[in-house]
Design goal:
Layout lengths: L6 H24 L6 H8 L3 H7 L3 H5 L3 H13 L7 H16 L5 H9 L1 H25 L7 H18 L4 H18 L1 H9 L11
Keywords: DNA-binding, Transcription, Transcription regulation
Pfam families: TetR_N
GO molecular function, one term: DNA-binding transcription factor activity
């Protein structure tokens, strides 16, 4: 997320972060189901309406970096150098996201998510939304509208790579293993073959790049 520059924007960002930090502290201390929005608002010293101004739901308090992750995935496509291959750029970003989400400090949060059906459902819907945003960015990069089936499939595989690797014994090796298959699938897609004939190849690269 772009850092706020104006005083008002900085104040809003600070309030949002205080609410999110307070919510996570209460959730981890008392249990997700035992804490309500009113509890979070009272502890953060804000109105309930202020909580909902920054977060659409109680579940969103747990996934407060949702928007940042989505933007990072899109930027992996739109912000790469003109001749940088697509798949290695996505793999690089997934590696970074997996490192963030498998740090020791995040383990209590993920245990809480796994133990809550509501949070698991929210995460699934979040992944689908991220995949659609990624597919749209990929399609725009290729001059397509709407996203092709291939773009949507590769975007889903990329998001799933994050989820699968996060739970693997060796997360970083799992990312590379999955992306070998993703690269092969993308190279076989007609839309990718068309892009390759129109300009520099965008799908090459070796695992761990």
């Amino acid at each position: 997320m772009t850092a706020p520059t104006g005083r008002r924007e900085r104040k809003k960002a600070a309030t949002r972060q205080r609410i999110a930090d307070t919510a996570m502290r209460l959730f981890l201390a008392r249990g997700y189901d035992a804490v309500g929005i009113r509890d979070v608002a009272a502890e953060a010293d804000v109105a309930v309406a202020t909580v909902f101004t920054h977060f659409a739901s109680k579940e969103a308090l747990v996934f407060e970096l949702d928007e940042d992750f989505e933007q990072r995935l899109v930027l992996a496509v739109t912000g790469r150098a003109p001749h940088e291959p697509l798949i290695p750029a996505l793999r690089h970003e997934i590696h970074a996201l997996v490192r963030h989400c498998t740090a020791d400090s995040t383990a209590p949060t993920w245990r809480m998510i796994y133990d809550s059906p509501a949070l698991r459902d929210y995460e699934e819907s979040m992944r689908l939304r991220h995949a659609e945003s990624l597919a749209t960015a990929m399609a725009a990069d290729l001059g397509l509208s709407p996203p092709s089936t291939a773009c949507r499939a590769i975007a889903r595989f990329t998001i799933d790579a994050f989820a699968v690797a996060r739970e693997a014994p060796d997360p970083q090796a799992a990312v590379d293993e999955v992306f070998v298959m993703i690269a092969a699938a993308w190279e076989a897609a007609p839309v990718a073959q068309g892009a390759a004939t129109a300009g520099p190849p965008k799908v090459t690269g070796t695992p761990g790049e």
